[in-house]
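FORM 12-B: Structure-to-Sequence Request
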């Protein structure tokens, strides 16, 4: 009698599980439809984000015109528009905005890259168009003459000769262009506070930039960059008077060959 009761209970439980499974299967399409409608309700429109100062390419690391994403080294590029937005007048002022680079003085060589300090004897720490060393050992190059500044961090500096373990800074100068253009830049400054009133320590920077073709075939191009600065510092008896002129000439000998001659004078 007990066996018959157990058999009856087992049959009832099996029928109940089958009914529950059939009910769950029947309700599944409704759940799928509800999930689909929920996804349609939460669909967002495409959002486009643009960075004004995001550099797309840095030639210094690979000596090729490739993007930063394709460069297998740690690189950073600072464009001319970025330097203008933060009101830098010399490359030394730009060091404060570089990751991994620390400013140690007023000259271009007074920096440390990833903890490795640079000196005036280390020409490979600061480069101009891939050539070691800046024109003036004392002072810092003006940013007005730079089209961009690139920083390569790590041992990739071996590509340019004697390695600087921390990396190097490469200043890309302005080159002649086939399209005529002219730029006149005037900046004024003053200080107020700590015993100074507005107008006590005045200063200004005047820069000009001209470029364009010389001949009708646009094979001979020129560029003239010049800047004059006369500024009083916020410290007593501190001042800065500098002159800079950098003419350059580019000759397109063939469609695949060009020769550029550049001259730089700083005082």
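FORM 12-B RESPONSE
SEQUENCE OUT:
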């Amino acid at each position: 009698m007990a066996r018959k009761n157990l058999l009856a209970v087992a049959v009832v439980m099996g029928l109940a599980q089958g009914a529950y499974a059939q009910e769950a299967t029947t309700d599944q399409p409704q759940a799928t439809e509800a999930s689909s409608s929920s996804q349609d309700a939460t669909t967002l429109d495409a959002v486009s984000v643009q960075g004004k100062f995001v550099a797309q390419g840095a030639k210094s690391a690979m000596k090729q015109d490739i993007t930063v994403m394709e460069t297998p080294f740690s690189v950073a590029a600072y464009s001319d528009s970025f330097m203008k937005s933060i009101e830098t007048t010399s490359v030394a002022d730009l060091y404060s905005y570089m990751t991994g680079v620390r400013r140690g003085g007023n000259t271009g060589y007074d920096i440390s890259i990833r903890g490795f300090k640079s000196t005036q004897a280390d020409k490979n720490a600061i480069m101009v168009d891939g050539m070691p060393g800046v024109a003036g050992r004392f002072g810092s190059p003006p940013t007005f003459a730079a089209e961009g500044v690139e920083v390569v961090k790590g041992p990739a500096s071996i590509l340019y000769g004697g390695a600087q373990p921390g990396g190097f800074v490469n200043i890309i100068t302005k080159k002649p262009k086939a399209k005529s253009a002219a730029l006149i830049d005037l900046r004024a400054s003053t200080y107020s506070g700590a015993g100074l009133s507005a107008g006590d320590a005045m200063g200004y920077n005047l820069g000009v930039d001209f470029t364009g073709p010389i001949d009708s075939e646009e094979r001979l191009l020129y560029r003239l960059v010049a800047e004059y600065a006369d500024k009083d510092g916020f410290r007593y008896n501190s001042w800065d008077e500098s002159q800079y002129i950098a003419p350059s000439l580019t000759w397109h000998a063939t469609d695949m060959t060009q020769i550029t001659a550049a001259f730089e004078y700083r005082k």
